[in-house]
Specification:
The complex is a heterodimer of chains A (279) and B (210).
Chain A: H1 14-23, H2 32-38, H3 45-69, H4 72-104, H5 110-118, H6 125-158, H7 160-166, H8 168-178, H9 181-185, H10 189-194, H11 198-205, H12 221-224, H13 231-251, H14 258-276
Helix pairs in contact in A: 1-3, 4-5, 4-6, 4-8, 5-6, 6-7, 6-8, 7-8, 7-13, 13-14
Chain B: E1 7-12, E2 15-21, E3 30-31, E4 34-36, H1 43-49, E5 62-65, H2 71-79, E6 83-87, H3 90-101, E7 106-110, E8 126-131, H4 138-144, E9 149-160, H5 161-164, H6 170-181, E10 185-192, E11 200-207
Parallel strand pairs in B: 5-6, 5-8, 6-7, 8-9
Antiparallel strand pairs in B: 1-2, 2-4, 3-4, 9-11, 10-11
Helix pairs in contact in B: 4-6
Chain lengths: 279, 210
């Protein structure tokens, strides 16, 4: 039984052939042209290669369109929706906890408490009302999780280098805060460094606060995991590499794994200052 | 060294350069059918320019890993038989599709060179694997794709030092790549691709028996 892309195909069924190119697999190559002629899929080798050309062009065109269809604006919607779901779930969870405490006296907190109430048996109408709210809260938290999964899958297709360095969710947040991948690519790295800290930045510009050292990139382990006095340096180094990554993602789409190594090395040097003692 | 049939040194307004015959792809200089093959833009071009013995005669069946926008693979398809072009990133593949439009023997595939089982159902055994993937683990990619090479086939690889480790000395990177590669391949010739490509090593190798 052959594993070739044409195995079991009707020679006229182009759609199925395209699907097989995309989804098929085999452990090792075989002499596919000969097999295709032997099984009657193609008249001769020349006919086989003609079909192969048509089908690989169509399959690859479709695969590119599909991967690029996961565009930056879709990512922006998804990450904003995820943030809304998380925030709303947390607010409702607080309400559930307050209400639950008044009825059961065993008030916990957060979404986990809402989940525990959602599984509880009803005693009376008040319980049913509380349980319904707890269920909604848990569902919203689940929705946030599934949006996160969607972002984790699509961000690497939209912005491969940025996702590699920042992780897919932070990458999506940065794209969202900038308003799109192109807008992010055009921002200087000092702006990327404080994206998400606009309030602190404007307070600073009015003259009554220190300049913010970092915005949303604070969630990155390379900033959070660096001791306080070196965090500004770490944030600047990270923001520099992230804006380079965003530019490559927007303008060329190439993968540059060396960016990761460059960033690792910069951060290692910054974090080493803690061991060398104060400078 | 002899160039493969279908590749020649051609004169473009007084400047001699490698060239192949086919539809132009990336704005290269042309003279009639002949299109200039710029070694600065192509690592395989640089290997030929350096006189490395690639073993290419012309008309081979080729698997090209890391085809990107198709600059080099379009030249390869001009002088080769069936040419399978694997590239992972969707954006450059749009241009690869344009290059393949006029080349009936060029088969573009949006696949990951680190997962050969995802394209072994399409790619037949080949005479030559050309590899130009800028990812960490380039020796591993070559080893994984050995399954496509016929016994007397050739691996023509361009190894980019910075993709393996930006901080290490390129010579040290090349040593470790050579060592890792030699468990699966017999290395026939290696050469730095300067001045065309800095910190790149060209490799010609033959698969070892399993």
């Amino acid at each position: 039984m052959s594993n070739g892309w044409f195995a079991g195909l009707d020679p006229d069924d182009d759609a199925a052939a395209v699907e097989q190119i995309a989804a098929g697999r085999a452990d090792a190559p075989e002499d596919w042209p000969v097999q295709a002629v032997e099984t009657g899929f193609a008249d001769d080798e020349a006919d086989y290669y003609d079909r192969l050309h048509e089908v690989t062009m169509a399959a690859t065109g479709a695969a590119v369109a599909e991967q690029e269809g996961a565009d930056d604006q879709q990512l922006v919607h998804a990450v904003r929706a995820m943030a809304d779901c998380e925030r709303t779930a947390n607010e409702l969870a607080e309400r559930v906890a307050e209400w639950g405490g008044s009825r059961h006296g065993d008030s916990g907190s957060g979404v986990e408490y809402a989940r525990s109430l959602a599984d509880r048996d009803d005693e009376d109408e008040g319980d049913r009302a509380l349980r319904a709210l707890a269920e909604q809260t848990a569902d919203l938290a689940d929705e946030a999780d599934s949006l996160r999964t969607y972002i984790e899958r699509t961000a690497p297709a939209v912005a491969p280098n940025l996702s590699m360095l920042a992780g897919p969710v932070l990458a999506a947040r940065l794209v969202s805060l900038a308003g799109g991948l192109e807008a992010l690519a055009k921002k200087p790295s000092g702006t990327v460094q404080v994206l998400g800290a606009e309030d602190a930045l404007f307070a600073h510009l009015k003259g009554n606060a220190p300049s913010p050292k970092h915005g949303v990139i604070f969630t990155h382990e390379y900033v959070r995991g660096t001791r306080r006095e070196d965090r500004g340096s770490a944030a600047r180094a990270l923001a520099g590499k992230l804006s380079i990554a965003a530019r490559i993602d927007h303008y060329s789409g190439d993968r540059r794994p060396e960016l990761q190594a460059e960033l690792d090395e910069r951060i290692e040097r910054i974090q080493a200052r803690a061991e060398e003692g104060d400078e | 060294m002899t160039l493969p049939t279908g590749v020649e040194r051609h004169d473009f307004d007084g400047e001699t350069s490698l060239a192949t015959q086919g539809q132009p792809v990336y704005g290269e200089r042309t003279d009639g059918d002949w299109r200039r093959w710029d070694p600065h833009r192509s690592k395989l071009g640089a290997m030929l320019e350096h006189g490395m013995d690639t073993g290419l005669d012309g008309d081979e069946t080729v698997l090209y890993l890391g085809a990107a926008a198709g600059t080099t693979v379009s030249h390869v398809a001009d002088f080769s038989g069936p040419t399978y072009a694997v590239e992972f990133a969707p954006r450059p593949v749009r241009e690869l599709l344009d290059a393949a439009e006029s080349r009936r023997n060029l088969f573009p595939l949006l696949k990951d060179a680190r997962k050969p089982e995802r394209y072994a159902h399409v790619v037949e055994p080949v005479d030559v694997v050309v590899q130009d993937v800028a990812t960490r683990g380039q020796a591993r990619v070559a080893t994984l794709n050995k399954r496509f090479l016929s016994d007397d086939g050739r691996l023509l690889a361009a190894i980019k030092a910075r993709s393996e480790d930006v901080t290490a000395d390129p010579d040290a990177v090349f040593d470790s790549v050579r060592e890792e590669l030699s468990s699966a391949y017999e290395l026939l010739e290696t050469a730095r691709l300067d001045p065309y490509h800095e910190d790149h090593l060209g490799i010609v190798a033959r698969p070892r028996d399993d």
